[in-house]
Amino acid sequence: MEEKMEIEDLNLWYGTFQALKDIELDIYENRVTAIIGPSGCGKSTLIRCLNRMNDLLDDVTIEGEIEMDDEDIYKIDVVTLRKRIGMVFQKPNPFPMSIFDNIAYGPKIHGTKDKKKLREIVEDSLKRAVLWDEVKDDLNKSALDLSGGQQQRLCIARTLAVKPEVILFDEPCSALDPISTRKIEDLIAKLKENYTIVIVTHNMQQAARVSDFTAFMYLGKMLEFDTTKNIFTNPKNEKTESYISGRFG
pLDDT tens, 177-231? Predict the structure, then answer.
């Protein structure tokens, strides 16, 4: 297995509050890495470091190193970085435009103008997100008219349209019903064949189902990282065991 991203000695402060403390983590190519831990432990803050979303916030200080393919992400143009590292958020956030235009938006921004090429990208992205059969006859319909689960798969298709290498999922199922959640989980299992995936989830059963590796965070620290199987069957850290067994969190 090859590392796709490496995090070393990562520290982050919001003003004077230290949200991340000495984080070390390897993210492996074509694998799903889950980040779990109680609310407020720094999971979302960590995942937002990976594509520099925290750069947009005032009064944030970041120290340490994050590399992708042995290159410092802070030396990569941020627009290029966010094309290579896509993100799917907790709440579906389709643009207030047609299904077609939602998917074509990113490729257009990055210079694809040919209509035939755009149609191919839209169809391919929707197929990869397992949404094509449900919307192929309604591509001019507003994306806001889709159900919550369909909107989330649309957002995944929109991310895929710009051909990322890494996809970050920040609690992508927390607003969805169980059937939609299952569709997203099945989709993640398929996507890892072609993409490296990091998922933040508060749902431990979900982490156990979809991930190959799991990192457990507590109070801004990475307490344990191992294969998902080991984390859930033989955790080494007492707090990991307490969290997984439901004694706190």
Answer: 999 999 999 999 999 999 999 999 999 999 999 999 999 999 999 999 999 999 9
Q: Which of 126, 179, 182 is nearest to 154 (CA)?
A: 126
Handedness of CA 235, 236, 242, 243 (dihedral sign): negative
| Residue 170 belongs to some domain of the structure | yes
DSSP code of residue 52: T
Q: How many domains does the chain have?
A: 1
Q: Is residue 118 part of a domain?
A: no
Q: Are the CB atoms for 38 and 44 separated by under 8 Å?
A: no
42 phi and psi angles, rounded to 5 deg: 110, 10
Q: Checking DSSP bridges between strand 221-227 and strand 60-68, what pairing results, if any?
A: unpaired
- According to DSSP, the β-strands at 60-68 and 32-36 are unpaired
Chain length of the chain: 249
Cα separation, 122 vs 128, whole angstroms: 10
Kind and range of the H or E run holding 102:
helix 99-109
